[in-house]
From TrEMBL:
Taxonomic lineage from the root: Bacteria, Pseudomonadati, Pseudomonadota, Alphaproteobacteria, Hyphomicrobiales
CDD domains to which the protein is assigned, alphabetical: Rubrum_tdh
Gene3D superfamilies: NAD(P)-binding Rossmann-like Domain
Annotated NCBIfam families: PRK09424.1
InterPro entries per the UniProt record, alphabetical: Ala_DH/PNT_CS2, AlaDH/PNT_N, AlaDH/PNT_NAD(H)-bd, NAD(P)-bd_dom_sf
Enzyme nomenclature, EC number: 7.1.1.1
Domain of life, per lineage: Bacteria
Keyword Lipid metabolism: no
Protein name: NAD(P) transhydrogenase subunit alpha part 1
Residues annotated as domain Alanine dehydrogenase/pyridine nucleotide transhydrogenase NAD(H)-binding: 148-315
Species for this entry: Methylovirgula ligni
Single GO BP term: NADPH regeneration
Pfam families: AlaDh_PNT_C, AlaDh_PNT_N
């Protein structure tokens, strides 16, 4: 059984889908692993490290993919990047399926059975495979570090001989995995932290981290969580009330980290132009929802932008990738855990249980066709 680790082709992607640690474990499970030369460089893993772990180093994508049973990637490859892949090879990657059915069709046409890692159900057994959590956790941490680096003032309260410096106020909007880590990180570096979310369950989580919870807690709020634990899209009336509350609060904040997302929908616009205009010069917003359109009216995806009133808005994409070595280590472990279930340890062969609930939730293409009910070409 062969596992291939091609290099990522997007120049903005610094992560890699396997590390020397996971290569060693795959080999321990009876696989042979081929890594494309240079694949780990931007994550600080050298070809020599992979070789020492037992991998074969191949030059170029075709030699890497040849005869592979499992292909590990961070991002969705174009169909052309899979030239030479074996029919029925399993592709494990973050496939970004929403709104990209044509790109998924290319994967089907390339003959690979493609699994979207981000659709892994949030059940206990799958926690170790949960790429959304592993990457969002790092993004939440990095957002606070980026904000602190941009902020031209000290974050913690400092009592010095020259006088006292007040602590910065940080407001975290959206308390999922990224938001919780942002709260914890902002607290660790000494900020006074408040947070908001539309899911009632988050109130206790915010308070347990020592931050203050701020939200419109009406009847709609009490019903705002889906059975899957995600937020529902809120009504226009709720969003107006939420904006009024946010407007008065945000004007007093120094650092705002926004993380609000609703699966499969554009990011909700939580911060208006007027709210930004009311913020202090020197304050910083980090918009972790930039990839899905952003939570602020002025976010420029992929860019740092300073408004006329001196507010810095960071709309960086792929924030976890700004911690490429750590993000790769955790992502690679997620893939190892996911692929482990596909390997028959006795015969050292592929043995996928196509009826497994995790397989069904994540498998998008099989035998040349789109097979996931949520990602079909319109008739
Ligand atoms: P996410 O990235 O989908 O969204 C981030 C946050 O934005 C969520 O907390 C959401 O409620 C919030 N949000 C949406 N609209 C908002 C609005 N208008 N205003 C304010 N906040 C808004 O979330 P996530 O980090 O993927 O977490 C989603 C859920 O999954 C959570 O309940 C989390 O605890 C749960 N989870 C479970 C597991 C598991 O294995 N059991 C693992 C990870 C996460």
């Amino acid at each position: 059984m062969r596992i291939a680790v091609p290099a990522e082709t997007d120049p903005a992607e610094a992560r890699v889908a396997a590390t020397p640690e996971t290569v060693k474990k795959f080999i321990g499970l009876g696989a042979s692993v081929t890594v494309e030369s240079g694949a780990g460089l931007k994550s600080s893993f050298l070809d020599a490290d992979y070789s020492a772990a037992g991998a074969t180093i191949a030059q170029g994508p075709a030699a890497t993919l040849a005869d592979a049973d499992i292909i590990l990637r961070v991002r969705r490859p174009a169909g052309s990047e899979l030239a030479g892949a074996k029919k029925g090879a399993l592709l494990l990657a973050i496939l970004d399926p929403y709104g990209h059915v044509d790109a998924l069709q290319q994967l089907a046409d390339a003959g690979v059975d493609a699994f979207a890692m981000e659709l892994t159900p949030r059940i206990t057994r799958a926690q170790v495979m949960d790429v959304l959590s592993s990457q969002a956790n790092l993004a939440g941490y990095r957002a606070v570090i980026d904000a602190a680096a941009e902020y031209g003032r000290a974050v913690p309260m400092m009592m010095t001989a020259a006088g006292t410096v007040p602590a910065a106020k940080a407001f975290i909007m959206g308390v999922g995995v990224a938001g919780l880590q942002a709260i914890a990180t902002a607290r660790r570096i000494g900020a006074i932290v408040t947070a908001t979310d539309v899911r009632p369950a988050t109130k206790e989580q915010v308070e347990s981290l020592g931050a203050k919870f701020i939200a419109v807690e009406d009847e709609e709020f009490k019903q705002a969580e889906t059975a899957g634990g995600y937020a529902k899209e809120m009504s226009a009336a709720y969003q107006e009330k939420q904006k009024a509350l946010t407007a008065s609060h945000i004007a007093k904040q120094d650092i705002v980290i926004t993380t609000a997302l609703i699966p499969g929908r554009p990011a909700p616009k939580l911060i208006t132009e007027d709210m930004i205009a009311a913020m202090r010069p020197g304050s910083v917003i980090v918009d972790l929802a930039a990839e899905r359109g952003g939570n602020t009216a002025l976010t420029r995806p992929g860019e740092k932008f300073v408004t006329g009133n001196g507010v810095t808005i960071l709309g960086y994409l792929n924030i976890a990738g700004r911690l490429a070595a750590t993000a790769s280590s955790l992502y690679a472990r997620n893939l190892l855990a996911f692929a482990d279930a596909f390997i028959d340890k006795t015969n050292k062969t592929l043995a996928v249980n196509w009826d497994d609930e995790i397989v069904k939730a994540t498998l998008l293409t099989k035998d040349g066709a789109l097979v996931h009910p949520n990602f079909q070409k319109p008739a």
